[in-house]
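Notebook p. 47: complex prediction with protoporphyrin IX containing FE.
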Amino acid sequence: PYDWYADRRAESPLHWDPDRHCWDVFAYDEVKRMLGDDESFSVNPREATGFQPAGEQTFLLETMLFQDPPKHDRTRDVVDEFFRPSAVKSLEPFIAAESQRLLAEALDESDDGVVDLVDALAYPLPVIVIAKMLGVPAEDREQFKQWSDTIVEGTAGEEEDAEALQERQMEAGMALANYFRDLVAKRREEPRDDLVTSIVQADEDLTETELLGFCMLLLIAGNITTTNLITNAVRTFGEQEYWPGERQRDTAIEEVLRYRAPVQSMTRVAMEDVTVDGKTVEEGDTLVCWLGAANRDGTQFADPDTFVPDRRPNQHLGFGYGTHYCLGAPLARLEASVALRELGTEYEVRPAWEDDDLEPIESSFLHGVRSLPVRLD
Ligand code: HEM
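Predicted complex, structure tokens below:
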């Protein structure tokens, strides 16, 4: 998409698309301004457009991701402290052990030392970690992972049509909601050292719908995104013939978040008429803020199309900006850092893919590939 961003941004920071019926915003300053101003640019599509959700969308639209303050802050304020870097740090040994286990298992099954990084590590790891963090017992984690996988599945096998997939997804969603409902009830009765217990104890006034919605949100917002961060990192390092050492790893991960942002765009709705670059955005218009384009804006980043592993400062917008700045950013950073560390210390990692064979995942706003073969020696 990067040539498209650059061409359009050179003409104007924002463009109206008559087919999709929305504005596309490409420039760093404008994207940042829109994400930073909840009063003029809402995340709640119902607020300004009267959009009526259906099915499981109803659930998700009630969560913080789709609510403006003050409703947004109700759940965010309760859970914020459990996602701080100091709070997620205790998961490090678990993430390291799981990364090693997943890689060893994948290699065991491979005849030639080549494994698909996505299948082997980047895809399973985030859901295992979030299950552990929430307090899903080890014996339920496989079932939990299957439900979660089904919910985020983009395309099914060729023999399955969209309707059948949707039905399976509805079923998995219900099963997961029931599972969370039981888990919440159990932890209310018998507290444990886990996230569900902590939230229940921190605020007894959160409704069951708010709590369930939040648990579902973690799966939807946190898993494929982290998968893509790990995969995009290995892909980029492979292309650059570079592997970061201990001291560069974390800045290199920030640069991947800029250079190949796993989330490329976020949507907002204008709450009033606004003029940008002589164009009038009208109240109720939808705006697609391209984080991936803002991250390559030459007015903010020198050599924007070059991967600079020790780039500093690096004020990328890969985790968004403002009120909705990613809650899971410290966890995603930790997971990527530990997974890449384990990968690099246990093995020598070499690309086993051809650029032309890489297939992008099907999504209008997520950036990643479906599989990434690597040779592990
Ligand atoms: C919000 C990206 C991982 C939970 C966001 C937003 C972005 C983002 C761009 C802003 C949405 C907006 O402005 O509308 C990413 C990326 C990730 C990642 C690139 C991985 C590399 C995670 C993880 C979790 C998580 C691991 C949780 C376990 C959330 C939540 C929000 C959010 C709950 C909503 C925050 C709010 O509305 O206040 N994320 N995310 N994310 N993310 Fe992440």
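Notes: The pocket of protoporphyrin IX containing FE is lined by residues 35, 43, 64-65, 76, 130, 217-218, 221-222, 225-226, 229, 262-263, 266, 318-320, 324, 326-328, 331-332 (CB under 6 Å). Residues 2-376 form a domain with the Cytochrome p450 fold (CATH 1.10.630.10).
Next step: compare against the earlier run before touching the bench.
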